[in-house]
Specification:
The structure is a single chain. This protein is mainly α. It has one domain (3-94). Helices cover 76% and strands 0% of the residues. It is built from three helices and no strands. The relative contact order is 0.24.
């Protein structure tokens, strides 16, 4: 796999990971989502999408010559998910 293919695969995985965080926030629209534990309203579909996204990023990091960029893609996806949860929790405090 080429570097371009690896980056595209990592971008798809990051988008799936971000989509999973959005799905989780929508499933818990009236409750805070904890950072380090399970939410009160579990969303099975968001767990599946998050797993597929993480596996896609992991495959991109292993199968392509991304090197440290594969780790950067994984960290970017995780930070985007944390940002979605932080935005969700802040929006609940304002109401």
């Amino acid at each position: 796999m080429t570097v371009t293919g690896g980056l595209m695969l990592a971008a798809v995985g990051a988008a799936l990971y971000l989509l999973a965080a959005i799905m989780l926030a929508r499933a818990n629209h009236d409750q805070r989502v904890p950072y380090w534990s399970s939410p009160r309203v579990p969303s099975g579909s968001s767990v599946a999408v998050r797993t597929i996204g993480a596996a896609t990023i992991g495959f991109a990091a292993i199968a392509s010559p991304l090197g440290y960029w594969g780790v950067a893609a994984l960290l970017t996806a995780i930070l985007c998910g944390v940002a979605v949860i932080a935005h969700h929790n802040r929006s609940l405090q304002r109401v």
